[in-house]
Design goal:
This protein has 8 helices and 17 strands. The protein is an alpha/beta fold and 325 residues long.
């Protein structure tokens, strides 16, 4: 019996959410008094695979061939399921990232497993039943799901669990499960990554703006605030629809769901579709000149004021704080 965790990489490099999910899976394996096995798909340096031991993995199954250099949903799911069977894993853990949201239900079906996605806490385990807290209703509420199946799949929300480090090194074992032609029935032709930006799903700080900015020519101060804070930039749906900002910055129910430690919303009214994608943020700060903006109802902190006056002063304040700290 073991716990298996899928370690996602981007262009051969592990993301912060990967270390979170390994730390989480390691804590689950400790609860069960069993070992944590990681499975990696794609070209990743051996040293980076070994370093997964620093987060709790005892062994890493390394799967690498030319067909798997880019993400293939069905093939990756088949490989993870094969890895679970090889290691007799009773629990499989993935990150609830864009990739993980596609993989977790497929893996669950292949293993005949129960599934809980959007998990935010360690499970409570009693008599082989797992009780897992997760977000529900697009992040507006929480639910506790009981998994009673023999095999269980958990998809962990990014930024929901702390990274725990040790001084261990994982053993790497090459793994080449048999794949079928049907696993490659749908292929990704191209993946374009914004390599010079902080990825929104992994960001701990997000600065987001909306129609209150009046036009794309005024976005420089949003980017300056984000750069000063070390934050990712985001926007509301009308902004990406209008072409003011790229679609990969759109957060909300129909865009990217984020759960940073700090979410700053500037000139965004707070429509329910937008709130659905950001409500898991630890702290929400709203800057809007309309005191009746719906966003203030869910904000931890609010500033009623003109963004063109408030944001420059906020930038100066952050720079001054950093200069004296």
């Amino acid at each position: 019996m073991s716990v298996l965790v899928y370690v996602e990489n981007a262009s051969g490099k592990f993301k912060k959410s990967t270390f979170e999910v390994v730390s989480y899976a390691a804590a689950v394996s400790k609860q069960l008094n069993t070992e944590l096995i990681a499975i990696s798909i794609g070209d990743v340096d051996q040293s980076d695979l070994n370093k997964l031991g620093n987060f709790g993995a005892k062994k890493v199954l390394n799967v690498s061939n030319d067909q798997l250099k880019t993400f293939v949903n069905q093939a990756y799911a088949s490989i993870i399921a094969a890895g679970a069977k090889k290691e007799d894993a009773t629990i499989v853990v993935l990150s609830n990232s864009f990739t993980g949201k596609g993989l977790s239900p497929r893996v669950a079906v292949k293993l005949g497993a129960g599934l809980v996605d959007a998990a935010v806490e360690l499970p409570k385990i009693e008599n082989n039943v797992l009780s897992v807290k997760k977000t529900a209703f697009s992040g507006k509420a929480f639910a506790t799901v009981e998994l009673t199946s023999a095999i269980k799949v958990i998809a962990l929300n990014p930024n929901s669990y702390q990274i725990n480090e040790t001084n261990d090194v994982a053993v790497v074992e090459n793994f080449a499960p048999e794949l079928k032609d049907s696993d490659f029935g749908t292929m990704v032709s191209e993946i374009v990554r914004a390599s010079d930006k902080i990825a929104l799903p992994d960001a701990e700080l997000v600065v987001s703006a909306g129609r209150g900015m009046k036009g794309p020519e005024n976005w420089a101060m949003i980017e300056e605030l984000a750069k000063t804070l070390g934050a990712a930039t985001a926007c509301s749906k009308p902004i990406s629809d209008a072409g003011w900002r790229p679609h990969e910055e759109h957060v909300g129910q129909t865009g990217i769901a984020v759960s940073p430690n700090l979410y700053i919303a500037i000139g965004i009214s707070g429509a329910i579709q937008h709130l659905a994608g950001v409500s898991s943020s630890k702290t929400i700060v709203v800057i809007n000149k309309d005191p009746e903006a719906p966003f203030f109802k869910v904000a931890d902190y609010g500033i009623v004021g003109d963004a063109f006056e408030v944001v420059p002063r906020l930038i100066d304040a952050v720079k001054a704080y950093k200069a004296h700290s």
